[in-house]
């Protein structure tokens, strides 16, 4: 599969020549490519335009351009003051409640373990429905999004180690946007995440975890790494189809919480949001965080899809 072909997905308005070549390659080599890249993952230029009009966020297009180009966007010090302090306090409380960590000094919250730590934090739950961040993710997708997965973890300093996600890899779910909130300062020499710029556009073939891993040399053949660093409160958005890795070392302790968004696929059980936040949600936001969404019948779900995608009135 040519690089030119795999890069087309990010173009909201591809040229006719690219489209024809894409279809020929796709039919010959990857039947699933048509559905994944040209329908599910393809952003709608019309939806993007509507989103800017509805939200009034002029910066969306510029920020999304960086995210589309590199696969990663760093918003240094996005959260400050009271909201950040509340998140840090809640996170420390979780860490006190949950004793022990694994042999790598790794302690995690929510994720696939049917825990509900997020639901106990008002400030952290607000991030999941934050107007600008969710508008940015929706703009990147070019269609309505769903909260797919939530996971937080604390990394204590350890001797450098390479294991699991702390080596070059891409995630198994293809296009998905992760909104990662750093709750502690993350310097370059610390336990930072690295991301190979531009690697999110590659259509990887894989059938198991091992095929998603890369050596240092292989990873760098796709591009240069970007160090995802910043002060506490920094938000890192990235497409987890791109090649990335965490780093374990003797740098300072790292706390983070991550929200994954997709356009409706790769959905996992959620930890729930704080009851006070749930009370404030609009109908569209309730659908976005999948409250009541699964229990509705097909006709209702279709009506909501049309409403969110074509007749969006408020953000
Ligand atoms: Fe990953």
Task: Describe this protein with a few key phrases.
315 residues; alpha+beta; Jelly Rolls; 2 domains; 6-stranded antiparallel beta sheet; 3-stranded antiparallel beta sheet; 9 strands; 16% strand; globular; disordered N terminus; binds fe (ii) ion
Name of the CATH first level of the largest domain: Mainly Beta
Largest sheet strand order:
1-7-4-9-3-2
Query: What is the number of helical segments per DSSP (H or I, 4+ residues)?
Result: 12
Structural class computed from helices and strand pairing: alpha+beta
Task: Tell me how many strands there are.
Answer: 9
Bound molecules: fe (ii) ion
- Supply Rg: 19 Å
The H-and-E topology, N to C, reads as HHHHHEHEHHEEEHEEEEHHH
What is the overall shape? globular
User: Which whole number gives the mean pLDDT?
Assistant: 90
CATH homology group of the largest domain: q2cbj1_9rhob like domain
How is the main sheet built? 6 strands, antiparallel
Distance between the termini: 38 Å
Tally of domains: 2
Unreliable spans are: 1-12
- CATH fold-level assignment of the largest domain: Jelly Rolls
Helical fraction equals 25-40%
Strand content: 15-25%
CATH architecture of the largest domain, by name, is Sandwich
Q: TL;DR of this structure?
A:
The protein is α+β, with helices and mostly antiparallel strands and 315 residues long. The protein has 2 domains: 1-42, no CATH class; 43-310, Jelly Rolls, CATH 2.60.120.620.
How do the helices and strands line up, and which of them pair or pack?
Layout: H1 3-7, H2 16-29, H3 31-40, H4 45-55, H5 59-70, E1 72-75, H6 81-97, E2 106-110, H7 122-128, H8 131-141, E3 146-155, E4 177-182, E5 193-196, H9 216-220, E6 225-228, E7 235-239, E8 244-246, E9 254-262, H10 275-280, H11 283-288, H12 298-310
Helix pairs in contact: 2-3, 4-8, 5-8
């Amino acid at each position: 599969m040519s690089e030119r072909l795999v890069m087309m997905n990010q173009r909201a308005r591809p040229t006719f020549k690219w489209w024809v070549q894409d279809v020929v390659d796709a039919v010959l080599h990857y039947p699933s490519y048509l559905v994944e890249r040209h329908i599910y993952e393809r952003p709608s230029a019309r939806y993007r335009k509507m989103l800017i009009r509805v939200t009034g966020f002029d910066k969306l297009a510029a920020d999304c351009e960086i995210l589309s180009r590199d696969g990663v966007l760093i918003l240094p010090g996005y959260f400050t003051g009271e909201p950040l302090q509340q998140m840090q306090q809640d996170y420390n409380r979780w860490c006190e409640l949950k004793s022990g960590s694994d042999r790598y000094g790794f302690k995690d919250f929510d994720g696939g373990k049917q825990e509900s730590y997020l639901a106990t934090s008002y400030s952290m739950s607000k991030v999941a429905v934050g107007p600008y961040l969710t508008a940015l993710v929706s703009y990147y997708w070019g269609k309505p999004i769903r909260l797919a997965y939530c996971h937080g973890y604390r990394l204590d300093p350890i001797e450098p180690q390479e294991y699991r996600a702390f080596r070059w890899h891409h995630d198994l779910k293809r296009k998905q946007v992760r909104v990662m909130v750093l709750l502690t300062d993350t310097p370059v020499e610390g336990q930072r995440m690295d991301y190979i710029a531009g690697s999110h556009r590659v259509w990887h073939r894989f059938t198991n975890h091992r095929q998603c891993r890369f050596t240092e040399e292989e990873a760098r053949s796709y591009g240069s790494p970007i160090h995802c660093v910043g002060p506490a409160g920094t938000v890192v958005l990235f497409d987890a189809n791109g090649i990335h890795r965490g780093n374990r070392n003797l740098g300072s302790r790292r706390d983070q919480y991550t929200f994954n968004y997709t356009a409706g696929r790769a959905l996992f059980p959620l930890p729930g949001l704080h009851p006070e936040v749930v009370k404030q949600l609009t109908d569209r936001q309730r659908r976005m965080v999948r409250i009541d969404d699964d229990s509705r019948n097909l006709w209702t779900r279709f009506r909501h899809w049309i409403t969110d995608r074509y007749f969006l009135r408020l953000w």
